[in-house]
Design a protein that fits this description.
It is built from 9 helices and 3 strands, in the order H-H-H-H-E-E-E-H-H-H-H-H. By secondary structure, the chain is mostly helical. The protein has a single domain, classed as Orthogonal Bundle (hpI Integrase, Chain A), CATH 1.10.443.10.
């Protein structure tokens, strides 16, 4: 299993299926699998990922520079470093990490259309997409007791209210299901 997700409940499993589906569809969709992996592993947005240049990648310190406002450095795991280094084996390297064949910026509208096809090929719900990968990254970090300020920084969010609210909404649902299961699945007064 990928080092990014390790929980067994549905959103994580669905996200893993999406990443695996993108990997198997790589020949049809270029580096989409690496884009999705990068977003899942860092919580950065699609525009931030598509705007990355090779000068923004610091392999030695395992980080990427996100040039949004405000600019921030985001640490990356070893598996992402390996995938990015693997992209450098081609004959021609463009300034942008992710680009069209002519070197221009990858079209986010086409990416969204292709992502629908990847989801279909992977047998994944339409509800699993870029924002889900970002959100699950934040949730996973909360599960690991990472401070919410650091999570906000990684996600490029000013406030962690949304992430915390969603985390507890999901955790409350899981707790409710467990309690109901222990009570025989019936409402008791």
């Amino acid at each position: 299993m990928n080092e990014i997700f390790s929980n067994d409940y549905c959103p994580y499993a669905e996200a893993e299926k999406l990443l695996a589906g993108a990997r198997s569809a790589n020949k049809n969709f270029g580096d989409y699998d690496i884009i999705l992996l990068l977003i899942a592993a860092t919580g950065i947005s699609l525009p931030e990922a598509l705007g990355l240049e090779w000068d923004d990648v610091d392999f030695e310190n395992r980080s990427i520079l996100i040039r949004s406002s405000p600019a921030r450095k985001v640490k990356i795991c070893q598996s992402v470093v390996a995938e990015l280094k693997g992209m450098l084996t081609g004959e021609w390297v463009c300034e942008l990490l992710f680009h069209e064949p002519d070197g221009s910026r990858l079209n986010p509208v086409r990416f969204a259309k292709d992502l629908r096809e990847i989801r279909e090929l992977a047998g994944v719900s339409d509800s699993i997409g870029i924002n889900t990968l970002r959100f699950l990254h934040g949730l996973r970090l909360l599960d690991l007791n990472v401070h919410p300020d650091l999570i906000c920084e990684r996600l490029g969010q000013e406030t962690y209210k949304y992430v915390i609210d969603q985390y507890y909404r999901i955790k409350d649902q899981e707790t409710a299901v467990e309690v109901m299961g222990e009570a025989g699945g019936y409402l008791v007064s």
